């Protein structure tokens, strides 16, 4: 497998397939007795950008982790493209290579340079040559304004830079689907925009994304659909204009009012 | 600039002075004690020190060989054991249980017993295909005991690497083994270098127990010289050698740790 | 081990009989003389305030140096209080010369290493096959000799070493000794074997090593060699003994440095040599330990 043109590769490889990039059906997830997800249904078409909003503890992160198979689910099914990833006997590692995830706390590998962070998985999981992996990583880093940080260790970068590296690290695997879990909430306010700009660019490039976020104006701006999660169920969903301006559910309205009061919309 | 230099000079001066005062206090207390004469005659006989030094140094070479050979086996073996203990899921329960039983057993039994039981017991079995040499069984005993200790050190290192690191690696499609090998263990090992060194020094010192098997290592040679002269100074010779080899090692690891820290965190402080 | 023990018990019984017989004979008269001028008990600086004589010995106390069954706690293997065995008998003879009855003697378990370490000692004198050397005499007082000793070597019957007839012939074998003995010194300086000798912490460890073939030969003093060969190693054999070069090696009583007792113990020993007691006790306890070929 060669790196090709990294810019093109940001687009899903299976562009010809009609239908959903991601389908979540009746997913239940419990931690011991605590039922965190109580029957989630969700469909994401290719090139869609879906935003998950909801109060803290409503289950946004858990849902993303379930989609990436980092958490086992108790009931329901998840499809990526045509593959049921929750089926038995699937190759977990192969599935995860198709789905990128970026965490709130970056989770960069502190003992590796930026370049090593980005090329580790392409080299070890995709068996790319060092040369190919380095070329692709360098190009991605350049695109996201990180070219000069290539050989730094993560601890020497700002939060915004670290988060951008984490996004680049996920992109280097050329995922069909990118999951972003509150990628700006650990950042100082002045660093938020540099990360949001990156995500915007990805959206413009046609990347299919599921984004858990508290940045309502950003969600309104970028999302093709918004899902409102409340206590483990999807209470309401719709295009951003509708959901933000005319929510049907009282709880959604409450939630949005609190957000507005906090000055975040 | 000059202010800084003078502040540093003052700090050095204070350090030197306080050290000197403490040393002087110790010397005064010791030399004024009623048994000081007997103590000095018994432990600080310069002529005996000089005379016994070459032989003990020669014997010490055996200690060096023992701990080098043992350590080379222990480091990977203990890591392997620690990894076995961290295997997830019920399938690996028997392996985990065995690894735990092993660690409990060999951390519990005094090293000298393990050395004696193997070193005297194995040759006594009279099996000609079994190695007979004391060196072999001493290494086996030290490896068994210290692998148990060191695997615990590794394990604490592995536990100290946050689960999110593994999650990040797995989310990128790396296998459990790759995540462990490329992401978790490198960080874990770096963190446990100081306690690893502790165990390494412990191992060095415990090579002195191998003398029970009859081989003449430094401590045994000191014992021989002591009983020949009825003077304890040869033990001081052995102690000197053990300390001499420990200090550079300790400083080396300090340096390693400092270098690592600096490399990863220099930007943060700025 | 059990076999070795029962054999040793049998041996002890036999020797006990011998003593009983000879004790009725002449030894009573030989040791009758008591009281050495200038050695009154209160001038000896005794450890025990009640005036008992405290004698140190290592535990276990081995044949033929000590005899009797293990009876008084904590003594193992044999019992210094029995008066049986060469060193026990000599110790009581010295005590008697100094005016102590058998009841006025007590034995203190003292590991070899503690016999010479600095600080207060736990005995008035110590007796457990300690060889005199000028170097050692800097740390403790030594009495005159109560036994002149030859080093010797024990091997196993039927092994190549059993037929060796010269010191040179021993060089190719793996030899061992017990730590604290002068035997190791003898191996290193006189025999100079090709492979490095082994040194064991205890008699038992050394004997085990000989039994399971870790060493071909064990160097010990001659009386001990006979005991090892007869009792501890079933197929053991005293291959030979060595003549000392220069001054003969001797066992002496160990006393605290500068002890007031040293001079008196020497005078007691002088008497015991002069009146034949020592020779007599050697005949009783060590007679079998003489006839080994001399290796040169
Ligand atoms: N590993 C876990 N073990 C037990 N409970 C968990 C675990 N992870 C999450 N939870 C619980 O699941 C619930 C949902 O958590 P989750 O992190 O998915 O919420 P969230 O919507 O992402 O919240 P936030 O906006 O604060 O990130 C919470 O009650 C949380 O305490
Ligand atoms: Mg969350």
Report on this structure:
The complex is a heterotrimer of chains A (265), B (270) and C (296). Chain A is 37% helix and 24% strand. Chain A contains ten helices and ten strands. In chain A, strand 4 (75-80) and strand 5 form a beta hairpin. The radius of gyration of chain A is 18 Å and the shape is globular. Chain A starts with 5 loop residues before the first helix and ends with a helix. Mean pLDDT of chain A is 88; it is low at 1-17. Chain B has 270 residues and is mostly helical. Chain B is 83% helix and 0% strand. Chain B has eleven helices and no strands. In chain B, helix 3 packs antiparallel against helix 4 (93-108), helix 5 packs across helix 6 (134-160) and helix 7 (163-171) packs antiparallel against helix 8 (176-191). The longest helix of chain B has 40 residues, at 46-85. Chain B is flat. The model of chain B has no long low-confidence stretch (mean pLDDT 89). By secondary structure, chain C is of the alpha/beta class. Chain C has two domains: 7-148 and 250-289, Periplasmic binding protein-like II (D-Maltodextrin-Binding Protein, domain 2); 151-242, Periplasmic binding protein-like II (D-Maltodextrin-Binding Protein, domain 2). Chain C is built from seven helices and eleven strands. Chain C has helices spanning 2-30, 86-97, 183-191, 203-211, 222-232, 261-274, 277-286; strands at 53-57, 105-109, 125-126, 141-149, 151-156, 175-178, 198-200, 217-221, 236-242, 249-255, 294-295. In chain C, helix 1 (2-30) packs antiparallel against helix 7 and helix 2 crosses helix 6. The radius of gyration of chain C is 19 Å and the shape is elongated. Chains in contact: A-B, B-C. The interface between B and C is medium-sized, with 27 and 34 residues. The structure holds adenosine-5'-triphosphate and magnesium ion. Adenosine-5'-triphosphate binds next to strand 2 and helix 2 of chain A.
Brief overview:
By secondary structure, chain B is an all-alpha fold.
Architecture blueprint of SSEs:
The complex is a heterotrimer of chains A (265), B (270) and C (296).
Chain A: H1 6-9, E1 20-31, E2 34-45, E3 49-54, H2 60-67, E4 75-80, E5 83-84, H3 92-98, E6 99-102, H4 114-124, H5 130-143, H6 159-171, E7 177-181, H7 189-204, E8 208-212, H8 216-222, E9 225-230, E10 233-238, H9 240-245, H10 250-261
Parallel strand pairs in A: 3-8, 3-9, 6-7, 7-8
Antiparallel strand pairs in A: 1-2, 1-4, 4-5, 9-10
Helix pairs in contact in A: 4-5, 4-6, 6-7
Chain B: H1 2-32, H2 36-43, H3 46-85, H4 93-108, H5 111-124, H6 134-160, H7 163-171, H8 176-191, H9 193-206, H10 218-229, H11 233-269
Helix pairs in contact in B: 3-4, 3-6, 3-10, 3-11, 4-6, 5-6, 6-8, 6-9, 7-8, 9-11, 10-11
Chain C: H1 2-30, E1 53-57, H2 86-97, E2 105-109, E3 125-126, E4 141-149, E5 151-156, E6 175-178, H3 183-191, E7 198-200, H4 203-211, E8 217-221, H5 222-232, E9 236-242, E10 249-255, H6 261-274, H7 277-286, E11 294-295
Parallel strand pairs in C: 1-2, 1-3, 6-7, 6-8, 9-11
Antiparallel strand pairs in C: 4-10, 5-8, 5-9
Helix pairs in contact in C: 1-7, 2-6, 2-7
């Amino acid at each position: 497998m060669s790196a090709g043109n990294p810019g093109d590769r940001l687009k899903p490889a299976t562009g010809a397939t009609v239908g959903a990039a991601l389908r979540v059906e009746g997913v239940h997830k419990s931690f011991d007795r605590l039922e965190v997800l109580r029957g989630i249904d969700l469909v994401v078409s290719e090139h869609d950008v879906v935003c998950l909003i909801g109060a803290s503890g409503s289950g946004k992160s858990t849902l993303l982790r379930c989609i990436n198979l980092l958490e086992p689910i108790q009931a329901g099914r998840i499809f990526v493209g045509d593959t049921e990833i929750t089926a038995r006997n699937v190759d977990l590692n192969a599935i995860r290579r198709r789905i990128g995830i970026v965490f709130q706390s970056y989770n960069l590998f502190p003992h590796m340079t930026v370049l090593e962070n980005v090329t580790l998985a392409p080299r070890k999981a995709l068996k790319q040559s060092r040369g190919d992996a380095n070329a692709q990583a360098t190009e991605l880093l350049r695109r996201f304004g990180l070219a000069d940080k290539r050989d730094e260790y993560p601890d020497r970068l700002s939060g915004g830079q670290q988060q951008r590296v984490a996004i680049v690290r996920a992109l280097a695997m050329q995922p069909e689907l990118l999951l972003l879990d509150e990628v700006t909430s650990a950042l100082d306010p002045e660093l938020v925009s540099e990360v949001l700009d990156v995500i915007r660019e990805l959206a413009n490039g046609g990347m299919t994304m599921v984004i858990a976020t508290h940045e309502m104006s950003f969600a309104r701006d970028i999302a093709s659909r918004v899902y409102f999660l409340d206590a483990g169920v999807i209470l309401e969903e719709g295009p951003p204009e509708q959901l933000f301006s005319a929510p049907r559910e009282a709880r959604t309205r409450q939630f949005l009012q609190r957000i507005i009061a906090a000055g975040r919309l | 600039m000059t202010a800084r230099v003078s502040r540093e000079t003052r700090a050095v001066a204070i350090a030197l002075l306080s050290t000197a005062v403490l040393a002087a206090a110790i010397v005064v207390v010791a030399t004024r004690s009623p048994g000081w004469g007997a103590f000095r005659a018994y432990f600080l006989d310069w002529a005996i020190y000089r005379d016994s030094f070459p032989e003990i140094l020669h014997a010490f070479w055996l200690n060096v060989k023992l701990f080098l050979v043992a350590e080379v086996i222990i480091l990977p073996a203990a890591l392997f054991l620690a990894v076995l203990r961290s295997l997830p899921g019920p399938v690996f329960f028997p392996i985990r249980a065995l690894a735990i039983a092993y660690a409990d057993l060999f951390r519990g039994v005094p090293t000298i017993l393990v050395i004696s039981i193997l070193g005297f017991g194995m040759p006594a079995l009279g099996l000609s295909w079994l190695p007979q040499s004391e060196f072999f069984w001493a290494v086996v005993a030290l490896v068994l005991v210290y692998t148990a200790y060191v695997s615990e050190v590794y394990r604490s290192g592995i536990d100290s690497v946050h689960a999110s690191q593994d999650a990040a690696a797995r989310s990128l499609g790396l296998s459990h083994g790759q995540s462990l090998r490329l992401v978790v263990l490198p960080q874990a090992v770096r963190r446990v270098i100081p306690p690893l060194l502790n165990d390494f020094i412990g191992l060095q010192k415990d090579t002195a127990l191998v003398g029970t098997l009859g081989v003449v290592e430094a401590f045994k040679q000191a014992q021989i010289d002591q009983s020949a002269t009825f003077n304890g100074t040869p033990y001081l010779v052995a102690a000197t050698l053990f300390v001499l080899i420990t200090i550079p090692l300790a400083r080396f690891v300090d340096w390693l740790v400092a270098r690592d820290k600096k490399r990863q965190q220099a930007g943060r402080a700025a | 081990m059990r076999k070795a023990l029962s054999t040793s018990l049998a041996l002890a019984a036999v020797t006990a009989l011998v003593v009983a017989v000879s004790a009725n004979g002449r030894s009573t008269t030989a040791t009758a003389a008591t009281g050495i001028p200038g050695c009154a008990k209160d001038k000896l600086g005794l450890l025990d305030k009640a005036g008992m004589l405290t004698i140190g010995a290592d535990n276990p106390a081995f044949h033929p140096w000590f005899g009797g069954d293990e009876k008084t706690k904590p003594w193992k293997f044999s019992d210094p209080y029995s008066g049986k065995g060469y060193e026990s008998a000599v110790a009581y003879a010295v005590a008697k010369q100094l005016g102590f009855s058998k009841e006025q003697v007590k034995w203190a378990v003292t590991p070899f290493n503690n016999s010479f370490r600095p600080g207060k000692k736990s005995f008035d004198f110590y007796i457990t096959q300690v060889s005199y050397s000028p170097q050692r005499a800097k740390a403790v007082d030594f009495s005159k000799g109560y036994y002149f000793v030859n080093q010797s070597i024990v091997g196993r019957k039927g092994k190549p070493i059993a037929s060796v007839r010269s010191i040179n012939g021993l060089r190719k074998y793996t030899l061992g000794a017990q730590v604290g003995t002068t035997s190791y010194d003898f191996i290193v300086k006189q025999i100079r074997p090709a492979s490095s000798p082994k040194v064991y912490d205890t008699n038992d460890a050394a004997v085990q090593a000989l039994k399971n073939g870790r060493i071909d030969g064990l160097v010990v003093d001659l009386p001990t060699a006979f005991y090892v060969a007869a009792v501890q190693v079933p197929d053991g054999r005293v291959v030979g003994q060595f003549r000392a070069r220069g001054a003969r090696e001797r066992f002496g009583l160990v006393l605290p440095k500068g002890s007031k007792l040293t001079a008196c113990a020497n005078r007691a020993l002088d008497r015991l040599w002069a009146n034949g007691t020592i020779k007599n006790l050697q005949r009783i306890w060590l007679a079998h330990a003489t006839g080994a070929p001399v290796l040169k």
